[in-house]
Amino acid sequence: MSIIDTFDLHGKEIIKAKNNISVIENFPKIVIVVFSSGFRRLALDKYNIQEIGSLNAGGIQLTIYQFEYKGVKLGFFNTIPGGAGAAALLEEIIALGAEKILYFGSCGVLDQEIAGGHLFSRTQRAKRKLACTWRLRAGQIPHPWGEAC
Question: Could you tell me the pTM of the whole model?
């Protein structure tokens, strides 16, 4: 019997992020998650940064940092590429106490009319089927809810 046939959509979760973390006292409520080590280097050079803990993903230890900007305590760490790993780490930083999370990175586009240097912000949740692979040609736009899968 496969998990697809037996998955309980309404049952309680078995593996909880809060059971996989080590508590970090006074964890920042606002966390910046970055995909580029350039942000880490910039922040380390510009601000008084403290290491406050770490997360582990795929055998890699990811240091969590904290700094203050204009009187606001912020946390940040470099996440791993890939939706599944980044989502698992998101669950863990929420379990640590993060309430506002900003993902900061870069992306490519299929529409060549979108100029470089623009800020992209997700305005709605796009639910996709599991194990869906997007194979798009230049100029082809995916449906935002995943029906193209």
Answer: 0.66
Domain ranges, ordered by start, for the chain: 26-104
Paired strand residues for 68 = 73
Number of H helices, E strands in the chain: 3, 5
Cα→Cα distances 118→7, 105, 113, 121, 139, Å: 40, 12, 11, 10, 18
Q: Which of 75, 74, 92 is nearest to 22 (CA)?
A: 92
What is the total residue count of the chain? 149
Secondary-structure class of domain 26-104 per CATH: alpha beta
In tens, the pLDDT along 62-120 reads 999 999 989 999 999 998 887 788 888 999 999 999 999 988 766 666 666 665 666 55
Question: Half-sphere exposure of 44 toward its Cβ, with a 13 Å CA cutoff?
Answer: 11
Q: Which secondary-structure segment (H or E) carries 119?
A: none
Q: Which residues pair with 72 in a beta bridge?
A: 69
